[in-house]
Structure of Heme A synthase:
Amino acid sequence: MQYKVLKWLSYASCIIMLLVSFNGVVVTRTGSGLECGREFPLCHGKFVPGTTIGSLIEYTHRLTAGIAGILALITLIAFLVWARKRRDFQIYAIVMAFFVIVQAIMGALAVVFSQSPPIMALHFGFALIAFASALVLALSVRRAGNLERRPEPPAEHRMSKRTRNLTIFSAFFTYVVVYTGALVSHTQIAKMSLVLHIASALLLVLILLVGHMAIRDYGHISDIRKLGIIVIVLIMALPLSGMLNLVVLGSEYYMFAPMLHTLITDFLFAFLCFMSIRTWELSRIPAGQPTSVGVQETAQA
């Protein structure tokens, strides 16, 4: 019973974090950030906003972020109480709750006080980490449950340090590129835009390499193979969604393209984080040992 509660809490946290990201895109795209004035949590002195579209968009974003914060704290408490022997689960829940709360506070400060473009970009970056940690938690809990029912066969050999380090670096570099993109959108500096395009091209090559190595060298490890395929698909879709933004600019579909781009970005970074954790686990086990690291306590979590 406790495991089911933890599993569904992790799923719900992941979904609400994604909704927060979507709402943030809508607020930015419609310029609704100050439609409730420089007041928080009130909207023009009221708890219930006015009937203007802009105020409803901004208030919905605030409401979603508030729900995300409450759910993150509930999830954290549940994992601290019911998953005491799974330190990894608890760490993911702590990271998620911390960044959800921090980015919510930053959002409130951005309303009350004007913020510089780097800080606004960091607000998006923290939301990205919050979603990534929520997805890593959900995937880890799901994986642990699956391994309890169907243990994996031993791996032929452990993960090389080169593959591990390259995977971890790709996740870090993805965050840098995403933050740079958010900064460019807030500053519109031409030189930074050129740097962003160069960095994006390098990121494409890097993640294609990571995915290729995962499939070629570790295809016998089911989750590594699947993760390799997923990151290749996502990194190929990312520039296409970026071009779609330009195509639909000014049309009635202008809202959906950036939401799709955000969706792909969020999942790409999150899956790279999970892949980094799995490669780190596999690099630490002796050759021939089972790949199901750290799942022996799942039944008691």
Summary: The helical segments are 2-30, 53-82, 87-112, 117-149, 161-187, 190-218, 222-247, 256-283. The first helix runs from residue 2 to 30. The radius of gyration is 20 Å.
